[in-house]
Amino acid sequence: MTLPLEGIRVLDLTRALSGPFCTMILGDLGADVLKAEPVGEGDMCRAWGPFDKGIGCFFLSVNRNKRSLAVDFRSAEGQETLRDLALQADVLVENFKPGTIEKLGLDYETLKKNNPRLIHATITGFGSDGPYGTWPGFDQIAQGMSGMMSLSGEPDGPPTRLGVPLADLVSGMWLSTGITAAIHQRTATGQGQKVDTSLLAAVVGMLCVQGQRYLSLGDVPARAGNEHPVIYPYGAFQASDALVNIAAANQTQWKKLCDTLGLSELPDDPDFADNTLRDKNRARLRGLLNEKLAAKTAIEWSKELMEAGIPAGPVYDLGQMFNDPQVQHQGMVETITHPVIGDLAQLSNPLRLGEVGPKTVRIPPPALGEHSAQVLADWGVAADRIDALIAAGHVQGAK
Q1: Is 168 a residue of the active site?
Q2: Domain 234-322 part of CATH 3.30.1540.10
Q3: Residue tagged active-site, from 168, 196, 271, 274
Q4: What is the DSSP string of 284-309?
Q5: Residues of the chain where predicted confidence (pLDDT) is lower than 50
Q6: Per residue in 180-199, pLDDT tens?
Q7: Which CATH architecture has domain 9-206+334-396?
């Protein structure tokens, strides 16, 4: 079946993680993503390990479903080539430090004069203006300044970053959503537009109830470790062998939990009569629950509690997760042939579109300049000009 963004041309000028994650999503949905990389070393994340047969896992993780063009960003000829490609693009995505895109002549105000249908998408660290508008963006800095780190970690420990680069990932997701919305709006208006977000704004936008607590009540939430900040019992508890997550989010689930654990007297205890009281007395309640949970393993309790109507699940490491039968059944990993690695397992896009099917990985992460000549031809560059660019070193083919 035709993919939703088939026919959409994306000129991808991004590097590292936030922008490449955005354009990977667009590629998963069918867009023709032309990943323009500097000649020589390419995207900086190609050099970040660990490595699989010499290829960085970091790069492999966010660059499927793209074709690579290696071009000299510093030469006049290379920059002219990029500007010509931008006039053929539906979408341009960049995550340079503010001011850089203008120096390249690839800013929205310049390009829209000759390509009014262009959707020009940008990720910055803190926004393109304001007191921090010129600052470069890095994930952990944004996690810290957003307040998200202040919410993560044990109550008596320091703030903790998430185990994946949250700011990079969610800014890429927000931007891909904005791009698809702009593509849809263009069908009505015929006009493109500028779309932007920042690492800081993306994480602030994920604060959800914690942010609303402050906005509504002036309440600065404290760290709650592996427990829900306002619902109890909802968190990680200790089974005989490992932690098990349990979420008794309402009175019915609370009573079922007590019955399943052999604590049927607890719903009548005035300390635990409702969620507010359970939250207030969570230390005592945690001890009572852990005492009973010590009788069985995390997976045994997970099955028993789920069958009783109480959400529960083991706390896996990645090895356990990837070998879980449900993860395998749902096709969360796909395998594609890579020219160097051979069979390459990749995370599947988690979206499932009923008219398309479950497979989302079509093109393996490319070698630097692997598709240079082909993408230039596909995007309308004359053959003699392609030959001249390659001969002069302004464009590089795969080694």
Answers
A1: yes
A2: yes
A3: 168
A4: HHHHHHHHHHTTS-HHHHHHHHHHTT
A5: none
A6: 999 999 999 999 999 999 99
A7: 3-Layer(aba) Sandwich (3.40)
